[in-house]
Amino acid sequence: MNTIRVVLYLNQFFAGLGAEEYAGTGPGKKAGAVGPGIALQQALGEGAQVVATVYCGDNYANEEANAIDEVLELVSGERPDILIAGPAFASGRYGLVCGALCARAQDALGIVAVTGMHPDNPGSDLYRTQVHISRTRESTAGMGEALKAMARLALKLYAHVPLGTPEEDGYIPTGRRVHFVAAQTAAQRALDMLVKKVNGQPYATEWPTPTYSQVKPALPLQDIAHARIALITTGGVVPRGNPDRLESAYASKWLKYPIGDLDDLEPSDWQSIHGGFDTTNVNEDPNRMAPLDALRELEHEGAFQDLADELYTTTGNTAAIPTARRFAQEMLKELRANKVQGVILTSA
User: Fold this and answer.
1) Which pLDDT band, with edges at 50, 70 and 90, does 1 fall under?
2) Who's near 341: CB < 8 A, 6+ residues apart?
3) Beta strands 255-258 and 306-313: pairing type?
4) CB atoms within 10 A of CB 197
5) How open is the CA angle 35-41-46, to the nearest 5 degrees?
6) C-alpha span between 192 and 257 (Å, rounded)
7) From CA 111, how far away is CA 55, in angstroms rounded?
8) Model confidence band, residue 63 (pLDDT cutoffs 50, 70, 90)
9) Beta strands in 72-167 (DSSP E)
10) Bridge partners, residue 346, by sequence
């Protein structure tokens, strides 16, 4: 029996290169199992071997147009039977690359490709209908169980063993409908769940709904006339040409641009790259989304002390909750450092 050849994809951190300062690292390859790959090899067992670990920095992989092609070429050179990417947990940039790479590997190389991430990862929403994604926890605290689950799922797919339900086999629902005859009618199943619920017994819904954390609103400014205000938009307003390649959906980053010397946003210099609405009217006048012109007038009238010198921007379209929370925390550090007391936040 031939040994199953497995290639593992990791970002720069898990490949042992370094943290965020190495996120711009281009694609590379190391022989055998590296980092989490050592535990993955144990989970795969003797019938499969991690022959190489391919890696790339998160920023490079998300921002360079040909990054996925470059990574895929390194994967292809190892003639793998299986590609395992990640796990990415709740890391948005990492998850987007893992999903894109697995989708491309399936189509271009005709191999089994599996990744792992938390359901709230933007890569999950974008790629769950295209590739099998093993469900993980939010953080690396679940690394061991994630690697075991990914290995089981990959080997099962490679052996053409029919998968069970997402709950049984630990993958994120793919959106595919599988018809079967239930032992009970819908009414009987609903009553059974209701009885269990009122009696405090455990039960499993057939249609889970998302839950969102509650955010307590900040108190209103008591003295806005002496406050510094910042302008933030989730409407995807960027310099024309989108030089920093902000995503039109599933944003993995937020950006900031100097506006201290500007009185408005000229359409020849600015645009919206948002993918969730028709941007025609905004691109005719970007101030419709990021109202710098109106804020300058209010500033000159003394409605508030002054406007912060930078525009903060991202795309809210299909944003994952953990990613949006991270954006807010990162922006908040800079806003406080710049002595900003209030924010005008505009969206689509």
Assistant:
1) low
2) 221, 227, 228, 229
3) antiparallel
4) 12
5) 160
6) 57
7) 19
8) confident
9) 82-85, 112-117, 132-135
10) 233
